[in-house]
Amino acid sequence: MSASAERNQVDAVVVGAGFAGLYQVHRLLKAGYRVRAFEKGSDVGGTWYWNRYPGARCDIESICYSYSFDEALQREWRWPQRYAEQPDILRYLQHVAERFNLRPHFAFNTAIEAAHYDEASQRWQVRTATGEEISSRFFIMATGCLSKPLEPNFKGLDLFTGERYQTSRWPHAGVDFTGKRVGMIGTGSSSIQSTPIIAQQAAQLFVFQRTPQFAIPAWNRELTDEEMRTAQESYAELRRLMRQSEVGIDYESPTIGAKEADAASLQKQLEFAWDRGGYLMLAAYPDLLTDLESNKLVSDWVKEKIRARIKDPAVAEKLIPRSYGFGTYRVPLETGYYDVYNQPNVELVDVSQAPIEAFTENGLKTAAGEYALDVIILATGFDAGTGSLTQMNIHGRDGRSLTEEWRKDIRSTLGLQVNGFPNLFTIAGPLAPSTAFCNMTTCLQQQVDWVTDTILYLREHHQTVIEPTVARQDAWVKHHDEIANATLLVRTKSWYTGANIKGKPIRLLSYIGGAANYRQICEEVKASGYPGFALA
Ligand code: NA7
After folding, report:
1. Residue 430 C-alpha to ligand 1 middle, in angstroms?
2. What DSSP letter does each residue of 148-212 carry, written as one string?
3. Per-residue pLDDT tens for 93-114?
4. Distance of CA 218 to the CA centre of its chain
5. 20 to 30 Å CA-CA from 92: which of 58, 86, 206, 279?
6. pLDDT at 508
7. Do the Cβ atoms of 279 and 331 come closer than 8 Å?
8. Which residue has the CA at smallest separation from atom 2 of ligand 1?
9. Closest CA to 27 of 67, 63, 60
10. For ligand 1, atom 25, which residue shows the shortest CA distance?
11. CB 311, CB 189: distance < 8 Å
12. What is the pLDDT of residue 278?
């Protein structure tokens, strides 16, 4: 066999060079497998490679947002801030790639164009956009759950003669907004993080808001040497607690629900949670996401916090969410977000009743008026959970198309495998714990470990193929739905359920039965020899 033919006959193809892809390649190489990995971007980083907009920052505390698989790595790395900003996380992932010599195994600037499962050889035939054909036993997707940007189909998009940017595809050289009239479309996390910084530079900033958000303060700050040293020394215990937790970070919640608390203790507990900042506010009460009355108490309390930040009461009322409860739509962490609406150069444009109708040569037009702009920023979100996979043209047994199947109904087994697609693994795939319901670094590592251990199990048992049965998949979907439907999350229209994409089947995309519980289920499957999975 020629060297290039040998290079294209591998044990595993891994797609993506973010947190999951890097660790997946590392684990497979250590186990002696031949691996080829592909990444669309020009370097490692995944989410943190693409999302370079001003103010991009992780909403999980940096001490908890890192790999735990290597003791020396976690003891040596120093995070500068409580919540790491994008350049720091990117630097961390670059460091990991160098430290474990992972880059040589990746082809960068290389998208996967198509892949199909060949039943005769029991191998995946993978084609890249650069024209390579690779034959692989296993096909592992580490493509992220918020990777495919949603670019709304605005009329006249290309008529606009000014600058146009998308937060999730931000230019590496940055953008100078000085003296410019800027239009920001969207008020999700990306907009909420970048708006305060852009507002400092721009001559005028118009924020086009369709749905207001319950953003809560991050209380970001520098980490002291002492704090960092303490974390480094106690990582073993911290990681243990994280793994045992509901969402992959350690926290404590009261045992009673919000509606059972008297007014004074409710006030005290919410102030306490508010001051802790960040996601811990979601842990203020255990029934926050399951009980309407409790959710309303907390939502009303947060609304008052928002009102108190805005000088103009009419603007404040526009910023108050009314159509859903606190926590049922991704809660963004903010630093100076609400304050921008007190600045004379910032205007909030409510497009809920008067939607954006079209882009024009000089800006954009809503049903209520026209806005002259030099720059338009699309902070319009993603095709979450499935988008990165359905764009890839994946065909399994009998030519079954993943895109077609998920267009009808989004089903998976543990979020990690799909019936009809043997040896395909989807890390953080739909119906696994993923973004917004789990600290990604905790959950991704666990899923990569499960995938790797599964591949090792096959080797030890002289098997080459694994595929979940229809019955096992149906059981997982049923279990997932029962838990999801008992929460208030499914009542809110958001990307959590795919409601931001026209025609996408509605189902909560992330498993919310708890990260620890999910880990245990995965461990049991492995320990009991993969019941409900066909091994061949
Ligand atoms: P999000 O949270 O999905 O936010 C997208 C925003 O864009 C949201 O406010 C949308 O309003 C808005 N949007 C989308 N299409 C339109 C149109 N046509 N007109 C007006 N407004 C529109 O994405 P982000 O990038 O901010 O954050 C995604 C996650 O990345 C984040 O939560 C973190 O986990 C990391 P809508 O709410 O649909 O009315």
Report:
1. 19
2. SB-----BTTTT--SEEEEGGG--TT----BT-EEEEE--SHHHHHHHHHHHHHBSEEEEEESS-
3. 999 999 999 999 999 999 999 9
4. 18
5. 279
6. 97
7. yes
8. 188
9. 67
10. 381
11. no
12. 78
246 has pLDDT over 90: no
Distance, in Å, from the CA atom of 148 to the CA atom of 151, rounded to the nearest integer, reads: 9
| d(C-alpha 244, C-alpha 240), whole Å | 6
Q: Is 381 in the pocket of ligand 1 (CB under 6 A)?
A: yes
Domains of the chain, first to last: 3-23+35-148+384-400+409-461 (3.50.50.60)
Question: If you search the block for the tokens 């905790």, which residue do you land on?
Answer: 442
Angle (CA) 409 513 82, round 5°: 110
Q: Is the CB of 330 under 6 A from ligand 1?
A: yes
Per-residue confidence band for 287, with pLDDT thresholds at 50, 70 and 90: very high
| Ligand 1 atom having least distance to the Cα of 187 | 9
Cα-to-centroid distance, 2 and ligand 1 (Å): 49
Best residue for ligand 1 mutational test, from 318, 330, 509 (most atoms within 8 Å of Cβ): 330
Q: Cα torsion at 427, 429, 432, 433 (round to 10°)?
A: 80
Residue 101, sorted as left (phi over 0), alpha (psi -120 to 50) or beta, turns out to be: left
The predicted structure's pLDDT at residue 191: 98
Other beta carbons less than 10 A from residue 262's beta carbon: 8
Q: Is 492 in the pocket of ligand 1 (CB under 6 A)?
A: no
The mean pLDDT value of the chain amounts to 96
308 vs 185, 304, 320, 338, CA distance in Å? 25, 6, 11, 10
Work out the percent of the chain whose per-residue pLDDT is above 90. 93
DSSP for 3-72, written as a single string:
HHHHHTEEEEEEE--SHHHHHHHHHHHHTT--EEEE-SSSSS-THHHH---TT-B-SS-TTTSS--S-HH
| Nearest residue to 216 via CA among 265, 280, 291 | 280
Q: Would the CB of 187 count as within 6 Å of ligand 1?
A: yes
Reported pTM: 0.97
Separation of alpha carbons 447 and 449, rounded Å = 5
Nearest CA to ligand 1 atom 31: 189
Phi and psi at residue 151, to the nearest 5°: -110, 100
Q: Is the CB of 215 inside a 6 Å radius of any atom of ligand 1?
A: no
- C-alpha 455/C-alpha 24 separation (Å) is 12
Confidence of residue 409 (pLDDT cuts 50, 70, 90): very high
Amino acid at 351: V
217-236: average pLDDT = 95
Pocket perturbation via mutation, ligand 1, pick of 364, 500, 504, 509 by most ligand atoms within 8 A of CB: 500
Residue 78 CB: number of other CB atoms within 10 A? Answer: 12
